[in-house]
Every structure is written in C-alpha cells, then in structure tokens.
Specification:
- The chain contains 18 helices and 27 strands.
- Strands 1, 2, 3, 4, 5, 14 and 15 form a 7-stranded mixed beta sheet that branches. A 5-stranded mixed beta sheet has the order 21-23-24-26-25. A 3-stranded antiparallel beta sheet has the order 6-7-13, with helices on one face.
- The radius of gyration is 46 Å and the shape is rod-shaped.
- The structure holds adenosine-5'-diphosphate.
- Adenosine-5'-diphosphate (ADP) binds near residues 508, 513, 543 and 575.
C-alpha cells in the first residue's frame, strides 16, 4: 500500500488527466457540434425582453417579380418600390440586390434615378468565391450610395446554420463592413471606430474582436414578439398607404422569393425552415441598434470553470460516501448544465461541452478510483485482522506453557513434602515462568501503546557500548545453544534516549539474528557514529529474506514464510516495536538482506555525541 500522500498526488493527477481529456474532447468537431446544438437550445429557451423594432423589410416576393415581368424585372420592381416608400421618409435604405452588371438601359436608368432620390442609401457587394474579389455595384449606381456593405453570411461550417455575421470581410485588396452595420452607421450619420477588441459606432460599442473574426452573434427577433414589419412591393403597389410602415425605419430591401434558394438560411429559431437573407440582415441590424450583443466567455473563464468542476468532483468522491456522493455529483452535473443558460441570460455565451465532458470524466475517474482504492484498503485491513488472530492464537498457546508449569509445580509443592533442594528449584521455576508470562503480556501491551503513540520516553544520557554489552550478556546463552559466535565492536560516546526501550530494540535485533540463523554461524554487532547519529547494525549469516519480505517485516504480526517454516516461535511483533521505538527517538531502522545470504538490521539514532 502506497503512502497516503503519494496516493493523494496520484488521485490529483488522474483527475487532472480526466479534466484535460474532457476539455480536449469538447474541442473536437463532435464536441463543437454538440456545443452549437446546446447554443441553439439555450437560444430558444431564453427569450430576451421584447423591444421595438427599428427596421422594416421591403420584400421583392414572387408576386412582385411576376408583376414586373419575372426575374428580369427585378430592377424595375426595385425602382418602383423605392419610389413608393419615399413619402414615408425612411431613416436609411439598404438594398440587398447584387447590381454588379449593367442590364437593359431603360431599367438601369430608372433604377439610377430612384437611387438618386433615395437619401442614406446602402448598396450591397458580394464576395466572389475564395475571396478573390468583390461583386461591387456598377459605378452609375454606386455613386448614389452613402455606403456599400457586404452581404456575406457566415454559416456554421458544421451544420450550415446562420448564427453570426462577420462585421468585416476583406479580400487581398479591399474590405467592406456588413450591410447591417453600414445601414446602422449611415442612419446615424456616424463613423466606425475600430479597436482590436470592438467597433464603436454612434456611441454603441460592438464587441467583435479581430481575433474572433469580428463576428457578431445575431439576436433574432424571438417568436411571440411582433416581427420586423414586412411589406412586399406588390402589396405596396396595390395599397400605397402601406408605406407608413416604413416611416422613420431603416429599410432592408431584398428578394424573399422561394425560388431564390441561394439566399435562404436556417437560423436557431427556424427549426429547419429557412429565412431570407434580407431578414437576417434586418435581425443583425436590430442586434446592433438595440445593443443585444452576445459575447463569448473567455477561454480562461471556461478552463477555470472546468477546473472548479473537476476539483469539486474530486473532493466529493474523496470525502463523501454512498448516496451523499451521488447526490453531490448530480448537483455538480446540474450546475455544469445550468451555468451556460444562466450566463446566457446575461448576454454571455458559455460553451456547455468543456465543463460537462470534463466533469463526467472526472466523476467516472473519481468513482472508479474510490472503488479501487477502497477495495485495496479493505483487503489490507482484513489481512491485518487475520494476522492479528493468528498472533492471538500464538500468544494464548505460548501462555499455556508457563501456566502449565506454574500450575503443575505449585500443585506438587502443596501436595507433597518435597526435599528442600527440590522445593527451591520449583520455586525458582515458578518465579521464572511467571516473569516470562509477565514479560509476554508487557510486550503486547507495549505494542498497542506504542502504536497508539501513548508511550512516554524516559530520556537519559548513557553509553551505547554499555547497553550493547548488557544485551550481549542476555543473549549469550541462546547463542551458545546454537554454537553461534557473536563479535561486537563499538564506538565510545554518549547517547540521549530511553535506555529501557533501546535495550529492548537491540535485544530484539540480536535474538532475531540468532533465531533465524543456522548453528555454527557468526553474528556481528557494530556500532559507529555517522553524521552525529549512532548506527547499531546487527549482521547475521542466516536465512535472509527477499525484497518484498524485507519491505514488510516491520509490519505488525508479519512473519516471512521461511521464518514460519524454521520452527522458531515468533509473533511478528518484535520488529514493529523496534521500529516504533526508533521512530519515537527521531531515528529509523532498516534491513538489507537476500534469501540465504543473511541479513543486516541497522538502527539509526540521532543525538549521539562522541
Ligand atoms: P518474530 O521474530 O516474533 O516473528 P519479529 O517482528 O521480530 O517477529 O520479526 C518479524 C519477521 O521478520 C520474522 O518473523 C522473520 O520472518 C523476519 N526476520 C526478523 N529478523 C530476521 C533475521 N535476522 N533474519 C531473517 N528474517 C528475520
């Protein structure tokens, strides 16, 4: 099991990766397509407060064309229409008809005359394929125009829906502002002030950064609101009084005939039905004139939002459990879906996909992580419990031996008149066995107290040499039993620490070295001073252990398989106590070993002075 801090770091990295992947997914064509659907959905869901439209549409519809002799009669119809609305004194007139070629002289002369009589006239230019040039009106018409605006609509490259209009379009040689913008400028007798971030016309700041292609998101007149008034030339011809609809308005003149497939577009409101290009220009004009701007949230804001969601998901699954975690995750998902709508009501377009996909991936990652890690933790806890049970079994078994001896001897003593020598021997045995029992109990109590951090160190200054000598005296009988030689060499000096606990630690390392070594081998004890710390190492030529075992021997109740098979009794707690003791002294204990090659345990203790 990894240390909790490493695990936490890994968890954070996994979440970061999930979040970044989510954002990356939202940047693919698929992600962007979903985002545009979300945009359209929100666009339809949120109805802006109604406003009084300032534009009107003079439509060249089928009936008008028919009355003026079909498609070739367009210029005729246009001239007649302009003459019919003149009495209403429109504020400006924008004509979305491409007039880049000369046609029949009579109709051209008639149209030129109509243009001459139309103040604040804006004519249209269309961009040639691949922006190779402009289809500008021929000079005889252009000279009467206050401005020429482009009528190039910006269709979404993914689904062909018209959501925005580029306010500026340029070829290599020259550029035009959009027809709607020019109509606005001319109607206000203003100029266009450019900055990299926006355009300013007649006191209106239009957010349209060069970096974003100077696009203007069009706020279409919502369903339910009185639409932009629309009168066809033919209707006007039959009832000239209809001209009052154009009084003081900015008039957009253009074809609306169904046959003109070229100039009919889909909008977020139209649900697949198409809108004439001229209506789109009028809507763009309304957006500008009424400052109904929709600006895009900055990338930094979007990334920050994603980071926030991912972090929240991470904390949710790290600290909440069960249904609470699920409820919190659901709330986060609701927030991720609702924020784009909420900010849309404030005129800011916030993409839905980055937050949603980053959050989803983060939730899946965090939930998976918790499942995985929790299971590992459970398994570790279970392992520990079973080892604890084994140890308890061992302890009760071990206790039985001295208890039986004590019981037996005391019974004999009570029942029979034994010779004096025998009585003394039995009393000594009872004494020794009960001490053994007491020390076993003490050991177990120590483990529990040390691990709970309740043991107080009784610090004092003493010579480590002396301590090692005392331990050697105690283990010598054990070593002699197996004919094991012990060599000791040490550095003089004084150490500050708890003498009793440190003696226990060194004694433990020594008894282990003897226990887990075959007869006729050697154990070396070396104490030295390195960088102001005392190092006591105990080296044996015993059974050793592999790397994985070496990593676990300091765990409570852990015993290696080789140790179990060796027939040596043990509980697996000694080394865990040694480690606790070393740690309480601000030191450490480590082992170097290989199977069959012997082991070297080294105890490192600070505060040593030579
Ligand atoms: P115990 O000796 O009671 O089993 P310890 O906590 O002292 O418990 O040791 C834990 C385990 O570490 C031992 O069971 C044994 O597997 C291994 N071990 C300890 N010291 C040595 C050693 N010197 N050589 C080989 N293995 C050792």
């Amino acid at each position: 099991m990894k240390a909790p801090s490493t695990l936490r770091l890994l968890y954070a990295f996994a979440l970061l990766a999930a979040g970044l992947t989510g954002v990356a997914v939202s940047w693919t064509a698929f992600g962007r397509q979903l985002d545009t659907y979300a945009y359209d959905f929100i666009f339809r869901l949120y109805r802006p407060p109604y406003w009084h439209t300032e534009s009107a549409i003079l439509a060249i519809d089928e009936a008008s064309l028919k009355a003026f002799g079909g498609i070739r009669g367009v210029r005729h119809a246009l001239a007649a229409g302009l003459d019919l609305i003149r009495s209403a004194a429109p504020r400006a007139v924008a004509v979305d008809v491409i007039l880049s070629d000369a046609a029949e002289e009579t109709s051209d002369a008639e149209l030129e005359a109509a243009f001459r009589r139309t103040p604040n006239l804006v004519l249209a230019a269309d961009l040639l394929p691949r922006a190779s040039g402009w289809e500008d009106p021929i000079p005889r018409f252009a000279r009467w125009a206050a401005a020429i605006g482009h009528v190039h609509a910006e269709l979404d490259s993914l689904d062909g829906v018209s959501r925005e209009v580029p306010l500026e379009r340029a070829t290599a040689r020259d550029r035009h502002w959009a027809l709607a913008l020019e109509a606005f400028r001319v109607s206000r007798h203003a100029t266009i002030l450019e900055t990299p971030q926006d355009l300013e016309v007649a006191g209106v700041t239009i957010p349209s950064a060069i970096a974003a292609g100077r696009d203007l998101r069009i706020r279409y007149v919502p369903p339910g609101m009185p639409p932009i008034p629309r009168v066809s030339i033919e209707q006007l011809r039959l009832d000239p009084a209809l001209a009052r609809q154009f009084a003081g308005k900015v008039v957009f003149v253009g074809e609306t005939a169904q046959t003109d497939v070229h100039d009919r577009l889909v909008t977020p409101y139209s649900g697949g039905a198409q809108m004439a290009g001229i209506e789109i220009h009028a809507n763009a004009y309304e957006t500008i004139a009424h400052r109904l701007f929709l600006t895009d949230a900055s990338n930094a804001a979007v990334l920050l939002w994603c980071a926030l969601l991912v972090t929240a998901a991470g904390f949710t699954f790290a600290y909440a459990a069960g249904w609470r975690a699920n409820v919190l995750a659901a709330l986060l998902l609701i927030a991720a879906h609702a924020l784009p709508y909420l900010v849309f009501t404030r005129g800011v377009v916030f993409p839905l996909m980055p937050g949603v996909s980053a959050l989803w991936l983060a939730i899946v990652t965090a939930a998976f992580w918790r499942h995985f890690v929790t299971r590992r933790f459970l398994k570790t806890a279970e392992d520990q419990r079973s080892r604890y049970q084994q140890a308890m079994h061992f302890v009760t078994h071990e206790m039985r031996t001295p208890l039986t001896a004590i019981q037996g001897s005391s019974e004999l003593l009570g029942r029979y008149a034994l010779p004096e020598a025998k009585r003394t021997q039995m009393a000594a045995m009872i004494n020794a066995e009960s001490k053994r029992l007491a020390s076993m109990i003490q050991t177990f109590l120590n483990v529990e107290r040390l691990t709970a951090g309740q043991m107080q160190l009784q610090r004092g200054n003493f010579a480590p040499d002396e301590l090692i000598a005392a331990c050697l005296d105690r283990v010598r009988p054990l070593a002699q039993n197996k004919d094991i030689t012990i060599d000791a060499s040490g550095a003089p000096g004084v150490i500050s620490g708890d003498r009793e606990l440190l003696e226990y630690a060194v004694y433990n390392l020594l008894t282990n070295a003897i226990k887990y070594s075959p007869p006729h081998t050697r154990v070396e004890v070396l104490s030295e001073t390195v960088d102001g710390a005392l190092r006591v190492s105990v080296k044996d030529q015993g059974i050793g252990m592999d790397r994985q075992e070496a990593r676990r021997v300091f765990e409570k109740f852990y015993r290696t398989e080789k140790a179990e098979r060796s027939g040596e009794m043990g509980s697996g707690v000694g080394l865990s106590i040694v480690e606790q003791i070393a740690r309480q002294h601000g030191g450490s204990v480590r082992v170097e070993s290989a199977p069959g090659q012997g082991s070297t345990f080294t105890l490192v203790l600070p505060h040593h002075s030579a």
